[in-house]
Design goal:
The complex is a heterodimer of chains A (318) and B (303). Chain A contains 16 helices and no strands. By secondary structure, chain A is mainly alpha-helical. Helix content of chain B is 74%, strand content 0%. Chain B is built from 16 helices and no strands. In chain B, α4 crosses α16 and α5 packs across α14. Classes of the chains: A mainly alpha (318), B mainly alpha (303).
Chain lengths: 318, 303
């Protein structure tokens, strides 16, 4: 009895599959694409443990000899490299500064926008706030140059005229300003965009809560504190987990555009190093090892942040 | 709510007024901080480059000229770059939308056999990657490096866009496709004639995201097409100029002397280039705002 049922079920599935065949073909096209451009590259990380020679072609990735130290030669070379601490320091400090300042700033911005009464003005502020997100980092670098450079920068000119400074501030030219520059430009570029998600979360809060709080005599600030903030807590937790996962990687484009020969000591991050060693200097295996090192640490960070968030607030990603 | 609001308007507490003042003041300052830099670049791009070095220009060009744009658009090197950028944006965006939506349509169909299996592959590819170097070596194996196709084929499908499209397609009533199937329509016809026309907000969102990332991309040229001068995009050429200007520490006087015989300087042409790069985006995104805000939410909630 149950066996015949099973057979019938299998037949049914087969029939359904046959009927759905065109749809499966669509999906297979996508899967084929993922195999070609995602799964096969994933298998290529094996060269991190090998001495790969580009002349050996694709097959050579798998037939190349394993490196010394049971395959971990490149990892050891990197960790003992004198540049290692500088790269890790720059990457982690810049990402942490962004997490510390840009992250709460977006929440603050979203709350302020919801507190604006005029709808027309609110729309103008929001629309304008998205613009920098759509602009490339290279244009942002050009804008920073126009605003802050020592020769045409309007801010330097203004400060000089006001007598607040004696010499123009070389924001783009001195390494000591780079952390500030990276954090501030990130805030300028992404605040409006990051705020979208909080704005939606705030819009989803039941307005009755605000009304009854008001009836009970709660002022604006207390309503923000006791209703708005708890209302977006879950969203904040999820986004925080994701950001912690990216503490060990940086914005490649930002570093390439705002970094230059003068501020290299602070602007060089892991992502830039991988590009330069891998593609410019063609040390493929070594750069792949650095990349793998970076992804493994990032993965560990996400898992830790997820566990932490689960314990503290009850919200988690997985 | 309205009655309450009316009541509030009559006796607004001091706290209310302070919050209002702070909120409006801060948002206004942020608005200015966002818009003014763009305006300043526009002003500089429309001002005589040598004259601009004297400083004192804030809100309006002093010595108005189109020379920067003429010089910029008269240079075949830049025209070629703009052509490449336009071509890869158009072709790339078209391919991405069509292919990603087709796969997402298949995946989002009700009662698809093996859906779980497909989703797992999708998720693995979403969260893991081999990193830049293995990716580069794979593209090299396929013979894509330094060819135009390297701009448009690898970004043709994205797991994130696919998730976005799937959550959108699931909002369509399944009866829609079902009734067309009963009428004998093939899946391609249903996809092109029924699903796509009903998904304009999704198409607007994906189109904007894909087009902006193509138009702005610097790294695809730098990583995968560095040795073919015919494939240099606008963003790629612009980086060369801007990073070079960054480290140019010559004083205003020296720059004026260097540009003695022309009305333009490297800087003023850079400003024109930036405006050309930003203008298409500025003209498009405000009109798609409603769609992409919704699109992000859809992706965030269900993805």
């Amino acid at each position: 009895m149950s066996q015949s049922n099973q057979v019938r079920l299998r037949n049914q599935t087969r029939k359904q599959f046959k009927r759905q065949l065109p749809l499966h073909l669509f999906v297979w096209a996508g899967i084929l694409f993922l195999v070609l451009f995602s799964i096969i590259p994933m298998s290529g990380v094996i060269i991190a443990f090998k001495d790969y020679n580009i002349k050996a072609g694709f097959k050579g990735m798998f037939t190349a000899p394993w490196t010394a130290n049971s395959g971990f030669k490149h990892f050891i070379t990197f960790v003992t490299n004198r540049k290692f601490s500088v790269l890790v320091r720059n990457t982690v400090i810049i990402s942490s500064l962004k997490l510390l300042f840009a992250f709460p700033f977006a929440i603050l911005f979203a709350i302020m926008v919801t507190e604006v009464r005029s709808n027309a003005y609110k729309r103008i502020v929001q629309t304008a706030s998205y613009l920098p997100h759509f602009v490339s980092w290279i244009v942002v670098a050009g804008i920073v140059y126009a605003m802050f450079s020592t020769n045409i920068g309007v801010i330097n000119e203004l400060l000089l005229k006001l007598g607040w400074i004696k010499e123009p501030i070389p924001l783009l030219l001195e390494a000591k300003y780079y952390y500030l520059l990276a954090t501030a430009s990130e805030i300028w570029k992404e605040t409006g965009w990051s705020a979208i998600i909080y704005l939606a979360a705030i819009a989803g809060i039941d307005p009755a809560l605000y009304e009854s709080a008001q009836v009970d005599g709660a002022g604006r600030l207390r309503r923000i504190w006791h209703i708005t903030l708890p209302g977006i807590q879950g969203t904040v937790a999820i986004l925080l987990i994701l950001s912690v996962g990216s503490l060990f990687s940086g914005s490649f484009d930002q570093a390439m555009m705002l970094g230059n020969d003068m501020n290299r000591s602070r602007s060089e991050i892991l992502d830039v190093f991988i590009y330069q060693t891998g593609l410019s200097k063609q040390r493929y295996s070594y750069a792949a090892a650095v990349g793998l090192f970076q992804s493994v640490i990032s993965l560990i960070l996400v898992i830790l942040a997820n566990a932490g968030s689960k314990k503290i607030s009850g919200s988690s990603l997985f | 709510m309205t009655a309450l609001q009316r009541k509030r308007r009559i006796k607004r507490s001091a706290e209310d007024i302070i919050v209002d003042v702070v909120v409006h003041l801060v948002t206004f300052l942020l608005l200015v901080a966002t818009i003014y830099p763009f305006w300043y670049v526009i002003v500089l791009s429309l001002n005589d480059g040598v004259d601009a070095l004297r400083g004192g220009i804030y809100f309006w060009p002093r010595k108005f000229t189109f020379a920067n744009y003429e010089q910029f658009l008269g240079d075949p090197k830049w025209i070629d770059a703009i052509f490449i950028s336009v071509a890869k944006t158009l072709v790339g965006t078209g391919l991405t939308i069509l292919f990603t939506c087709l796969v997402a349509y298949g995946l989002s169909t009700d009662g698809l056999v093996f859906r779980k299996f497909y989703s797992i592959i999708l998720l693995i590819c979403m969260y893991f990657s081999g990193g830049l170097i293995p990716y580069y070596l794979t593209l090299r194996t396929y013979g894509l490096l330094n060819k135009f196709w390297v701009y448009v084929i690898p970004p043709m499908f994205s797991t994130y866009y696919c998730m976005l499209a799937m959550s959108f397609f699931r909002e369509h009533p399944p009866a829609l496709a079902e009734s067309a199937r009963l009428d004998g329509a093939g899946e391609i016809t249903i996809f092109l004639r029924i699903i796509m026309p009903l998904s304009k907000p999704l198409l607007a969102t994906l189109g904007l995201f894909a087009a902006v990332s193509q138009w702005n991309a610097w790294s695809d040229t730098a990583f995968f097409a560095p040795s073919n001068p015919g494939l240099r995009s606008l963003a790629f050429l612009m980086r060369g100029v801007i990073v070079q200007n960054q480290v140019d520490t010559s004083s205003r006087v020296a720059m004026m002397k260097a540009a003695q015989y022309s009305a333009t300087t490297a800087t003023s042409i850079q400003m024109a280039a930036m405006i050309i790069a930003v203008l298409p985006i500025m003209c498009v995104y405000p009109f798609l705002q409603k769609h992409f805000v919704k699109g992000i939410m859809l992706g965030a909630v269900k993805g």
